[in-house]
């Protein structure tokens, strides 16, 4: 199967998960996670109507942005160093991996230079894994970042993002996704100015469970592009 066929299969699975949980498929954005995959594969998808792509590394994102059609929307989903924000601030559609106040301030500064507002998500390490980035999953920590966002005119906080721990049985990720949704709901209750509507959760292994638990954005790489071959890096 080529990327188009695999992409269509993912869309069908999303539609089925929505149907099972009484949700409208229009509410669920599919981000094609293209890290370590070729510009050709991205272009092929883009030509058949795909516009939203997620990348993890600034250098790779910037190079692909340069090479590929300007109509593509690029989402930063990987750990972001403050000194690299300037390379993507001009065009990035959303930064989903915010986990410190300092990073927020850098995004504010760089967005201001380009006279734009950058939508962001707070990355939450719900599973509290050593190996993962993201803030601790407490209301207090998330509200500290959210309150800061409200003071920054060039940053727009839209919601929360998480990557679940790997479980052989994806059903075991359900409490993780549920926790992210509850955290988002509590934040909206705590401060009615927030109006957080985005929950970015679910990847190849677990996106259907995430949709059942309220995901509004799923980030799917392997199921669309195949396995990533890091020995064959192009970027
Ligand atoms: C790589 C990556 C994905 C996609 O993972 P797959 O398992 O290939 O679908 C999603 N989100 C983040 C943050 C990633 O780094």
TrEMBL record:
Span of domain Alanine racemase N-terminal: 25-228
Keywords per UniProt: Pyridoxal phosphate
GO molecular function: pyridoxal phosphate binding
InterPro entries: Ala_racemase_N (IPR001608), PLP-binding_barrel (IPR029066), PyrdxlP_homeostasis (IPR011078)
Modified residues (N6-(pyridoxal phosphate)lysine): 35
Entry-linked HAMAP family: PLP_homeostasis (MF_02087)
Function: Pyridoxal 5'-phosphate (PLP)-binding protein, which is involved in PLP homeostasis.
Assigned protein family: Belongs to the pyridoxal phosphate-binding protein YggS/PROSC family.
The protein's name in its UniProt record: Pyridoxal phosphate homeostasis protein
Organism annotation: Limosilactobacillus albertensis
């Amino acid at each position: 199967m080529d990327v188009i066929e695999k992409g269509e299969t993912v869309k069908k699975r999303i539609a089925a998960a929505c149907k099972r949980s009484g949700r409208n498929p229009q509410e669920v954005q599919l981000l094609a996670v293209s890290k370590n995959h070729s510009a050709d594969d991205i272009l092929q998808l883009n030509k058949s109507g795909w516009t939203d792509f997620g990348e993890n590394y600034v250098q790779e994102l910037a190079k692909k942005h340069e090479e590929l059609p300007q109509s593509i929307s690029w989402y930063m989903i990987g750990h972001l160093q403050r000194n690299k924000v300037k390379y993507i601030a001009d065009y990035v559609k959303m930064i989903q991996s915010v986990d410190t106040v300092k990073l927020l301030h850098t995004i504010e500064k760089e967005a201001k230079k380009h006279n734009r507002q950058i939508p962001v998500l707070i990355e939450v390490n719900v599973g509290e894994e050593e190996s993962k980035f993201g803030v601790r999953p407490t209301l207090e920590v998330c509200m500290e970042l959210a309150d800061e966002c409200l003071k920054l005119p060039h940053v727009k906080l839209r919601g929360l993002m998480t990557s679940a721990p790997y479980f052989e049985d994806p059903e075991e990720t359900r409490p993780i996704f549920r926790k992210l949704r509850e955290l988002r709901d509590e934040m909206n209750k705590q401060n009615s100015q927030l109006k957080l509507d985005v929950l970015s959760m679910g990847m190849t292994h677990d996106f259907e469970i995430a949709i059942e638990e309220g995901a509004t954005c799923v980030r799917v790489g392997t199921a669309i592009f195949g396995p990533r071959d890091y020995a064959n890096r192009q970027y």
